[in-house]
From TrEMBL:
The UniProt record lists the keyword Nucleotidyltransferase: no
Keyword tags: GTP-binding, Nucleotide-binding
Organism in which the protein naturally occurs: Belnapia mucosa
PANTHER family reported for this sequence: 50S RIBOSOMAL PROTEIN L34
Organism ancestry: Bacteria, Pseudomonadati, Pseudomonadota, Alphaproteobacteria, Acetobacterales
Keyword GTP-binding: yes
Name of this protein: Lin0512 family protein
A Pfam entry, by short name: Lin0512_fam
Cross-referenced InterPro entries: CHP02058, Tubulin/FtsZ-like_C
């Protein structure tokens, strides 16, 4: 059996006020989850607990994301989270607030022949 990527889903999330990078990351992950339906797991008889879910989050301040909270938000699988420089901060006109935009990529892999 070989670990093979079977799904790659993307999402975007934001925190419009307050600059909360974790909130934006969580919303990006939820956006990606709501675009995916893993009906093949049932069709193939795969236990969802055994799938690998590799999450990559892109934000301007990776150190500001609580990766454990992101990991805990995934409902199934063996989850790893990597936070990298990416996303976008959009400051308001007076520079006192910024909209934080996060990108998420969820790669699901299964042990397959």
């Amino acid at each position: 059996m070989t670990l093979r990527r079977v799904i790659l889903e993307m999402g975007a999330g934001n925190d419009l006020h307050g600059g909360d990078y974790t909130k934006a990351a969580l919303r990006a992950v939820q956006d990606a989850l709501h675009h995916a339906s893993l009906t093949m797991l049932r069709s193939l008889g795969v236990d969802p607990k055994t799938m690998r879910v590799d999450v990559t989050i892109g934000v301007q301040r990776p150190e500001a994301v609580d990766a454990e909270r992101v990991r805990a938000s995934l409902p199934h699988g063996i989850v790893t989270v990597r936070v990298v420089k990416g996303g976008l901060d959009v400051p308001d006109e007076d520079g006192r607030d910024a909209a934080v935009i996060a990108s998420a990529a969820l790669a699901v892999s299964l042990e397959l022949p």
